[in-house]
């Protein structure tokens, strides 16, 4: 069965959030094509993942000393209630990712980077060896697709004055690449200048913001339809051509 793990991180409501509207647009098209049985949803703003603690670190270091272990083997190394709690919080999230053919992330830009709720989820699923095949050493995510839909109030695209301020896409590209997600399977869709209509400093850029949002919507539709490869060709981003115009 084809599976989609849909994760939203915006603190704004569905009516107010650009990233939520775009990810739901993707998810709705996906459910139409594949049915609802393989669809999984997680809202990290409404139901935050607890930050990792010292017991998580102790367990992770103990596991690392054993080499790469299957998640089912980790329980035997757990010591005490605190580590039991950390592993109980962690393992289901790892298994959720491993079960997904596609991971869809809605990621607004907060203070030039990703939301803290997403970082907490990333820290927790990044348990030593969780996405490595113990037998071969290969990534268990090499065949998975990751679609990252970002929303930025300003403009951070290539060639813009604030391009170097983008600590959102470079971080997520490096993170998922390090996990073993193939470059061709890592897709980015950007909606930029989303605040152009209501921030005086962005006055005059509203049409560019509207164009960026329209392009992001078209890109989401194409990806959900399975046409991402042709859209991303030659973009240099490892995914979609930038929907950035500011």
Characterize the structure shown:
This protein is of the alpha/beta class and 246 residues long. The protein has a single domain (4-232), classed as Rossmann fold, CATH 3.40.50.360. It has eight helices and five strands. The longest helix has 19 residues, at 80-98. The model is unreliable at 229-246 (pLDDT under 50).
Set down the secondary structure blueprint.
Layout: E1 4-8, H1 18-34, E2 39-43, H2 54-64, H3 71-74, H4 80-98, E3 102-108, H5 116-125, E4 145-151, H6 169-179, E5 186-191, H7 206-224, H8 228-232
Residue-averaged pLDDT, rounded?
A: 90
Spatial arrangement of strands, main beta sheet? 2-1-3-4-5
Give me the Rg, rounded. Answer: 19 Å
The top level CATH class name = Alpha Beta
Give the SSE order as H and E letters. EHEHHHEHEHEHH
Class by alpha and beta content: alpha/beta
How far the N terminus sits from the C terminus, by CA atoms, comes to 40 Å
CATH superfamily: Flavodoxin domain
Beta-strand percentage range = 5-15%
How many beta-strand segments?
5
How many structural domains can be distinguished in the coordinates? 1
CATH topology: Rossmann fold
Determine the fraction of residues in helical runs and give it as a percent range: 25-40%
Number of helical elements: 8
Main β-sheet: number of strands, strand sense, barrel status?
A: 5 strands, parallel
CATH architecture: 3-Layer(aba) Sandwich
Low-confidence residue ranges: 229-246
Given the C-alpha coordinates, what overall shape results? globular
